[in-house]
Design brief:
Number of domains: 1
Bound molecules: zinc ion
Largest sheet: 3 strands, antiparallel
Strand order of the largest sheet: 1-2-3
Strand content: 25-35%
Number of helices: 0
Low-confidence stretches: none
Structural class: mainly beta
């Protein structure tokens, strides 16, 4: 009876500054320095949780 299997396990989302060299998990582009982005933690069935960064207003929003 897993009812939350469709949420892709993303949690703990908040706004922060991404570290240099990281890329948006949505559009795979780099970030502009000193511009905040969305940080989230994605739970994985195997291995440690994955930290994701996304543009605060990403130009490429994936429709799933
Ligand atoms: Zn993006």
């Amino acid at each position: 009876m897993a009812t939350n299997a469709q949420t892709s396990g993303i949690r703990d989302e908040y706004t922060t500054y991404p570290p240099s060299g990281s890329r948006c998990s949505n559009c795979n582009q780099g970030f502009v320095p000193l511009v905040p982005a969305r940080r989230a933690v994605q739970e994985r069935s195997s291995g440690p949780p994955l930290v994701l960064y996304r543009h605060f207003s990403c130009p490429e929003v994936k429709a799933r």
